[in-house]
Amino acid sequence: MRELESLVVASGGACRMLGFLYRNLLNEWSSEQLWRRFFSDPSQWWDHRFDKTNARFPDFKHKKTQDALWIDARSTPRWVRSELAAMAPIAVQQSAFSWNAKMAKYVEGGQFTEAVALFELMQTQGVPPDKYSFIQVLKACAGSMALEVGKHIHCQVIKSSYGSDVFVDSCILDMYSKCGSIEDAYNVFKNMPQRDVISWSAMIVAYAKSGQGSRALEIYTQMLQELIKPNSFTFVGVLTACTSLGALEEGRFLHSQVIENGQESDPHVGSCLVDMYAKSESVEDACKVFNDMPTRDVVSWSAMIVGYVKCGQGGKALELFQQMRREGLEPNNVTFLGLIEACTNLLSLGEGRHVHAQVIQSGWETDTSIENCLLDMYAKCESIEDARELFNNMSKRKLLSWNTMIMGYANCQLGEKAIDLFFQMQCERVEPDNITFLGVLKACSSTQALEHGKFIHEQIRKSKWKSDTFVGNSLIDMYSKCGSMEYAHRVFDSILANDIVCWSAMILGYVKSGQAEEALDLFREMQCKAVEPDPITFVAALNACAGVGALEEGRLVHAQIIQSGYDSDAFLGSCLVDMYAKCGSMEEACEVFNNMQLRKVGAWSAMILGYVECGQEENAIVMFKRMLQEDVVPDSVTFIGVLMACSSIVALNDGKLIHAQVIESGLESDVFVASCLIDMYAKCGSIEDACRVFSNIPFRDVVCWNAMLSGYAMHGLGKKAIQLLEWMLQEGTDMDTASFASLLSACSHAGLADEGVYYFETMTPVYGLSAEVEHHSSMVDLLGRAGHLHEAHDMIKNMPCLPDVSIWQALLGACKIHGNVQMGESAAKELFSLDPEHSSGYVLLSNIYAAAGKWSSKSKVQNLWTKRHAFKQPRYTWV
C-alpha cells in the first residue's frame, strides 16, 4: 500500500499512468501485456484518464481526486500492487515522460526541428533523457536529415546506458541511412551486440533506398544464413532493391519466399511486388499479384497504375483509375503523378485536363511535385498557355518549375519567351543549373539570338557548369546554328576532355553551317586522336560527304561503319543511301538499300529523292509504288520526293493518285506537301487543281503563297498573280525574295510592264528586301519583251551585282523579238564570255541574223556552234 501511496502523491502524469494501469487490469490484462503496451509507445500514457465510468479524469492536484484514486487503488489485487511498486522508479521520473510525449507529437506532425529543439531544452533544464527521448530525437534527425545533430545524439547514446539497446541502435541506423550516410549506418549495424529482424530490415532498406540494391540483397542473404526470419518490412526493402536493379528472377524468388512466410496478404508487400513486376516489364505478373490481393489500398492501386505507365500502357492506367474510383478509394499524390505521366506519354491534353480537375477536387493542387508534373504535361502537349497560367498561379516555384517552363517554350519554338523567362528567373534570384542552361541555349539556337547566347555563355563560364559536357555541346550547337563557327570552335577547344559527344556536335555544326570540307577535316583529326566514332558521328560525316559530293570519302566512311559493327543500324543505312544518291552513284545506293535488314520509311524516302536528283523520275515513282506494296507508310518527305518526280516528267495521272494517298495519310494540311502538290498540278498544266489545293490549306505560310504565285507565273496569269499577292498581304503574310521573283516572272509573261516596274521599285524601300540576280533577270526580260531594250540594257549596267548567263540570255531573247541586231551581238558576246557552250545563245543569235537577212553572219555562228560542240538537247512536253 505504501508503494501505491508514493505513486498517488506523485505528479499528475504518474497518476494518469496508474489510472490507465488499473482500468486495463479490470479488463484482466496480464502484467506482460501492460508492460509491452507502455513501452511500445509511452505517449499513450497521457491519453488516458482513470475513472470507473470512463469519464475524463479531473486534475490530480485536488485532494478529493487523490482520495478517490486511493480508494480504487486499495481495492486492487495484491499482485497488481507489487507490479505497480516495481514500476515506481519510472513514475518518479515522470518529468521525462511529458517531454517525450511532446517530442512524439512534434515528430508525428513533421515538426522535426521543434522536436530537436525540445530535446536540447529538456537537457538544459536538467532532465536526463531516457530511451524514448533518444528514440524520438533520432526520428526527428532522420526526418530533417540533420546528420551532424544525429551524430551528436549518437555520441550521447554511447555515453548513456542505452548504447547497447537494440531499439535505440535501430533508430541510429535508420537516422544515418535517411541522412545518406550509409557507411556510418553499416558501422552501427555491424557493431550491434544483438541484431534482430528490425535491425536487419533497417539495413536492407537503407541500402535499397540509397541505390545499392546489390548490397541490400547481400545483407538479406546474410540475414537468412543467421536464421533470422524476415518480416514484411524486410520484404519491402529487398523487393525495392530488386526493383531498382531490374532483377526479375531474384524478385520471383523473393515472391516465393513471401508466400512461404505468409506475407502475401500484407498490402505493403503486395504493392512492392506489383511495383517490382511492373518496373521489370512483367505486367502480366504484376496484374496477377494485384488481382490476388485480398485487400487493396490506395498504395496498391497507385503501384499498378504507375506500373502500367512505366510499361507504356497509359490507356490501361487511366482505365484502372476509373475502376479505383468506382470502388470508392481516394487517390493520393502518387496516383496523380502516375496519371499525369500517362497523359503526358499519350499526349492526351483532354485527359490531362480532366486529371487536373480531379487533382483540384482532391485538394492536391498545391503539391509541388504534382504542379511540376502538370506543368510538364501541358508543355509537352503543346498547350503552353495552360502551362504558363499554371506556372503563374503556383504557390511555390522551385528550380524544376522554371526549367520545365523554359524547356517547354523552347520545344514549342517560342524561343524569345524562353529567354525572357530565363532573365525573369534571375531577377527573382533563382540560381540556374545545367538543365536551365540547356533549355535557354536551345531557345537561342532556334531564334538565332547570338548576342543573348554570348551573354548566357559568359554566365556559364562563371558558374560551376562551365566544364559540363552537355552544356558545352549545347553551346557548340547554339553557335553553329547562329552561324558563328569561330565561337563554336573556341568552346570546343576550351573543353579539357573532348569526348565523342563533343566531336560529333562540332562536326554536325560544320555540316549544318554548310562547311562540309571543315567537317571532314575534323572527322579525320578525331580519328588521328584515336577517338572512336559513334553512329551520330558517322551520320555527320556522311552528311558532309553528301554535301560536297565526296564519293571516295563516303566509301571510306562506309567501310568504317561496317568495321565498327554499325552496318545494321537502320538510320545509318538511310544516310548511306542518301550519301550515294547525292554523290550520283545510284547503283551503290541500291546495293545498300537492298542489303538493309530493316528498311524504314527514311530509307525509302532517300531512294526516291536520290532517283529524282539523278534525273530518274520514273524509277522514283516505281520505288514509291513498291513501298506501298510492302505496307510501308510514307511520310511527308516521301510525298515531297515523289511529287517532285511527277512534276519533272509531267505525270498528272500518277500525281492525282499520289494526291489521294496524301489525303489518306492525313498530310494534306502539311504546308510543304501542299506546296509540292500545287507545284505538281501547275507544272502538269492543271492550274485549277492547283488553286483547289491552295484553297483547302487551313494555315498557309509564305511557301504555299509562293508556290501558287509561281504556278500563275508559269501559266502567264499576271493579273491573278497580282490579286493573289494583295490577298497574301491582307492575310498578314510577309513577302520574301521568292515571292517577288514569281510575281515579276508572272508580270513579264503577261506583258504587265508597268505593274512589274512598280513592284520592283517598291521591293527595297517598302518591303526591305534587296533585289538579287533572279529579280534583275526577270526585269530585263519584262522590259525587253515590252520593247524597252535600252532601259533593260541600262539596268544591266547599273546592277549592284555582276550579271550572269540568265540576264544576258534574257536580253538576247528580247533582241530577237524586236530585231535589234547590234544590241543582240553585244549581249551574245557577253553571254559567250561566261559560257562558250551555251547552246540557246547560238540559236537566238543565229535567228536574229536570219531575220535581218544576214546569212553569212548566220553561217559563221553555226560554224562556231559546231566547232564548240554546243548542241542543244531536244526537249519534249506531255502537257
Describe what you observe in this structure.
This protein has 879 residues and is an all-alpha fold. The protein is elongated, with a radius of gyration of 41 Å. The termini are far apart. The relative contact order is 0.02.
Pick out its properties.
single chain, 879 residues, mainly alpha, disordered N terminus
Total helical segments: 52
Radius of gyration: 41 Å
Mean pLDDT rating = 82
As residue ranges, the low-confidence spans are: 1-94, 870-879
Structure class: mainly alpha
The general outline is elongated
Terminal CA distance reads: 123 Å
What's the story with the biggest beta sheet? none
Helix content: over 70%
Question: How many beta-strand segments?
Answer: 0
Q: Strand fraction band?
A: under 5%
Oligomer: single chain
